[in-house]
Amino acid sequence: MPATLRDVAELAQVSVRTVSNVVSGYEHVSERMRQKVLRAIEELDYRANPVARTLRTGRTGMLALVVPEIAVPYFSELARDVIDAAAAFGYRVMIDQTGNDHERERQLLRGDDRTMLFDGILFSPLVTKAELLEMRGATTMPMVLLGEHEFDGRYDHVAIDNVQAARDAVAHLIAIGRTRIAAIGTQPDEEYATPLQRTAGYEAALAEADLESPPGFTVPAARYSRTDGYEAAAALMSRSPRPDAIFCFSDLLAMGAMRAVFDAGLRVPDDVAVIGVDDIEEGHFSRPSLSTVSLDTPFIAREAVRRLTARIEDPEVAAEEVIAEHRLVVRESTAGGE
Amino acid sequence: MPATLRDVAELAQVSVRTVSNVVSGYEHVSERMRQKVLRAIEELDYRANPVARTLRTGRTGMLALVVPEIAVPYFSELARDVIDAAAAFGYRVMIDQTGNDHERERQLLRGDDRTMLFDGILFSPLVTKAELLEMRGATTMPMVLLGEHEFDGRYDHVAIDNVQAARDAVAHLIAIGRTRIAAIGTQPDEEYATPLQRTAGYEAALAEADLESPPGFTVPAARYSRTDGYEAAAALMSRSPRPDAIFCFSDLLAMGAMRAVFDAGLRVPDDVAVIGVDDIEEGHFSRPSLSTVSLDTPFIAREAVRRLTARIEDPEVAAEEVIAEHRLVVRESTAGGE
DNA sequence: TTGTAAGCGTTATCAC
DNA sequence: GTGATAACGCTTACAA
To answer: Which of A50, A118, A157, A228 to pair with A255, CA 20 to 30 A apart?
Structure first.
């Protein structure tokens, strides 16, 4: 049985008030009292019960990070940065995966989960804008959205300029002389914001150069996995005309796509240039190394945590949208020979 | 202000006891009462306060997973499996990274952290055996160790046979005719269990084949990152005689090592065969795909959560050691031409 | 400066 | 089957 505040008070012959003061670092405690209390704490190996404290103060000191899948490098790298940023603000992070499961997302948002032991949510959602709107007022919990959902003034929001990012990637492919540019990562059935915006950027860049996307050159990918990228690119390689470049909506798709190009007996970038989005570490060392649009994940994490903690302090602060920078990173997969 | 049990009781004109019964699914509640209560709950949009419940029951429903770095693929894939396994047992997972920081590990183990809102710890530690022993009795919190620390009967423990895993990897390199086999991943200054055991397996396999490891053929790597692997392999490539195979203590090291081999103008596996340990997904799609020793991570996760929840239920159950299977997976990096 | 006591919102122990 | 009511361990008015 762990020692309680009362036990300490008894042993030290003081009131619980005094013990509490010492524990929470209250200023006005006489040195003699403090010493007595500290000795008792030491002797009983007392440690404050965080649950009781939480019940009283209403703060758990914990944030939830909700992502589709933690094993996806982009999300695990984001999680690393979020955990670090949260630590700097005195918070810890619980991670939940929705596993691309809409219902799970809704549950979390509705807040009817039985174990919501956290003060706020960092949410990287799949849900469409319509669904987000539909949840209006559903949850009272402070929340910051990560990703590219359109800002509607209700939620804090750390995003990137997704259309422009896609546009930059495709413009680069055009600049190196490619004309038959395919895209992998559209969503066939759902109206997710990210793929829609990246598709828009892709089309805008093509239009700007008076190019077009032949039928079958935009390929859906359900889960943005390496396997999805592989299968999509394999299909593209058997088309005629064959694409001479592929814009993948994520680096992970690109890793699979590059492998499919090689397995089709072709070379990257000579026969087919490949570019992704995210700038995951895997792409630095792959062969060829992967050109990409780099997102400033540490900034995104820091900004998101900053906004969220501010809202936890004061739920009335106005929602803000922050746009994180992105920049084109040219590596071997769109450059000269390997 | 969220509604409380008392509010519901008042509105439904029943006692809090009855409301609590309904909420927690107690059997013996008359249908009339139940309906009244449910209506009131609906009307007030009542949701139980998990903190209060926790204070009362002593259970948070949360486990902590402590890893060196969540962005390392092996750990993010492990985290995915742990989160899934925990969900199956009704728990959620808080993730903490120690960032290779010993002090942080010790803090967690000592349990003097102020926000320990969890029922047990899954701990994938760096600490050496001596340090673990030194912490005897330091924490009363249920804990399961992940990884290859020697079992001393005090902690539950899900491990792999590390020596044998290394041995299998190196034996495979020997079987395909390699004789100058280097190793990357020793720890120069620390007595961590994992690198020591893998080194032992490496040496055992060599000895068995009457081979030896020339001076400079075992290269340390501080953080098991791709960069570490790259640098270590780059150094190896400039030695003479040059190794014709490299056993990397992790797949991530191997990814960096392969890249270094190519950058030295050599081929994998023709000039230098490369094998890792972990079987991360990245290795399925890399070029060449990576031979490795596959660890059964889903099993490890499930087993660890099972042991931990059992210990949470009954702190007195005897500690057990479970050894997870491993198996050699031969891919392109140790097979015929690319 | 320190003590007393009233909660925080549940669950659980009594009675009835 | 249901109603009072006492904890759970802490923080914090309010008093002294």
So the answer is: A157
